[in-house]
Amino acid sequence: MSTNITHQPSHITHDQRSVSNKSWFHGCTVWFTGLSGAGKTTLAFALEHHLVNRGISAYVLDGDNIRSGLNKNLGFSDEDRVENIRRVSEVARLFADANNICLTSFISPFESDRNAARMLHSQNNLPFFEVFLATPIEVCERRDVKGLYKRARAGQIKNFTGISAIYENPTNPDLILNTELYSVQECVSKCVQMLATAGLVPNCDEVNPFGGPMPKELYVTDPLEVQKLKAQCLSLPHLEITDLDLQWIQTLAEGWATPLNGFMRENEYLQVLYFGQLQVSDCSVITNFSIPIVLAISNEDKERFHGNGSSIAFVYKSNIIGMLQNCEFFPHRKEERCCHIFGTNHINHPSIKMIMSSGDWLVGGDLKVFERIKWNDGLDRYRLMPKELHSELVKMKADCVFAFQLRNPIHNGHALLMTETRQQLLKKHGYHNPVLLLHPLGGWTKSDDVPLNVRIAQHEACLDEVFLIVIQLYWQYFLHQCYTPDHVKFNGMLVHEC
């Protein structure tokens, strides 16, 4: 070891580094250890994909990659294995210190080396998580993607861990995973929960394979909890809601407006109005969001309610369908809302006319809905929730989904666009089973529009024999005339939730 060197500590603290990344220091190392074929590399890259898609800087140091570069002068003797892990530990520590989540994928068979890596991070005030992939050797050998076990059994590879070289199981890992029992996404979810518990990433319970927070359903599913909340509602002030209010409640309850927990409070409303994005308190992910989802009430209704922090029961056609908890009341500045969303406040626009004639107050809070909302119009089968829609597409083995939104019957121009899109996906982009996700818009329509049920029947007749399709019905309010670019983002977000 050289003696004529002096360690130079960084002049930038962890708090200072966090300023450039949403005021959140998440630098740490997640050390995946286990036998060859246990799933370390697969899981590390899947976790990296999830984190990066949520705006969190992460990077994988993979055993094969490191041995082909930085450590290409090392073999597989015990001494070289120790040096391999020592070097990787130092690199991982630097990555973590730079506010990255460093994901290391190494067999790292010796517990003393893994403990040394943990100690190195501890000395530098950096979190370290040892994740043991306890996949049985029989399973690893059955996978044998690289054919290494077969060669080791034949004596062609010396010092092969698990066959001719020892692997020391961790005695106190932070997480144990058996990839024979859990899917990749389930393993990723457990790793994310581990990091969230340590306060290093947002606390979102489930993992969205497309990145971002998982669609958040606001239905109460426990029958005893429903019974308890309904009993509470009997003593609460009631608010009679309209069809339009119920449509927005359905949108929120089914998870289409994730990450909202209910109707917007003022802080959320102003974020959306002025910045076209949203960050809620229980998840640090910033989401494109440009349409306010608010509940307008009259002066008389506001006087009946009990002020901030109170609860309200929602009544629709004499039935209690849900409640709003921890309410917050704030003025409904209608002209400001219309001008920001539509670029005008002219009441000849139908949506602006509705806003200008609505109540002078807005109320936000946490929404609880007691049972799934159905309209019993013969079209409820087309109103899937995001997770249901995703499951349907998985069942169809879709390797690509292309979406088309319309408020009219399909005409020749629509058909040409859909057909050309499908052909390009097949021929130019190499997909094998693209599925059309058709979005007919329902709700309010003009007097001369074709009725929704007729349009749905026409869509099925025109497309069923040509495309693999899923029809997902949306309410008309998603189509705001006088579009701004951010409204396009909002509609894209709704598709993304699928």
Q: How would you characterize the overall build of this protein?
A:
- With 498 residues, this protein is an alpha/beta fold.
- It folds into three domains: 16-197, 3-Layer(aba) Sandwich (Rossmann fold); 223-369, Sulfate adenylyltransferase, CATH 3.10.400; 380-496, HUPs (Rossmann fold), CATH 3.40.50.
- The protein is 38% helix and 17% strand.
- It is built from 18 helices and 16 strands.
- The protein has helices at residues 14-19, 40-53, 63-67, 78-97, 111-123, 137-143, 148-153, 184-197, 223-233, 243-253, 266-275, 299-304, 334-342, 350-356, 386-395, 412-427, 452-463, 485-496, and strands spanning 28-34, 58-62, 101-105, 128-133, 175-177, 238-240, 277-278, 287-288, 295-297, 312-316, 319-331, 361-369, 400-406, 434-442, 469-471, 474-475.
- It has a five-stranded parallel β-sheet, sandwiched between helices. The chain has a five-stranded mixed β-sheet with strand order 6-10-11-12-9.
- Helix 16 links the parallel strand 13 (400-406) and strand 14.
- It is globular, with a radius of gyration of 28 Å.
- Residues 381-467 form the Sulphate adenylyltransferase catalytic domain.
- Residues 27-177 form the APS kinase domain.
Keywords:
disordered C terminus, 5-stranded mixed β-sheet, Sulfate adenylyltransferase, disordered N terminus, globular, 38% helix, Rossmann fold, alpha/beta, 5-stranded parallel β-sheet, single chain, 3 domains, 498 residues
Assess the beta-strand content as a share of residues: 15-25%
Strand arrangement, major sheet: 2-3-1-4-5
For the record, the CATH architecture of the largest domain stands as 3-Layer(aba) Sandwich
Q: Mind telling me the C-alpha Rg?
A: 28 Å
Largest sheet: 5 strands, parallel
In total, the number of domains comes to: 3
Whole-number mean pLDDT: 85
CATH class of the largest domain: Alpha Beta
**CATH-defined fold name of the largest domain:** Rossmann fold
Report, as a whole number of angstroms, the end-to-end distance: 56 Å
- CATH H level of the largest domain: which superfamily? P-loop containing nucleotide triphosphate hydrolases
Q: Give the fraction of residues assigned to helices.
A: 25-40%
Number of helices: 18
Structural class by SSE content: alpha/beta
Pathway: Sulfur metabolism
GO molecular function, one term: sulfate adenylyltransferase (ATP) activity
Protein name: adenylyl-sulfate kinase
Domain Sulphate adenylyltransferase catalytic: 381-467
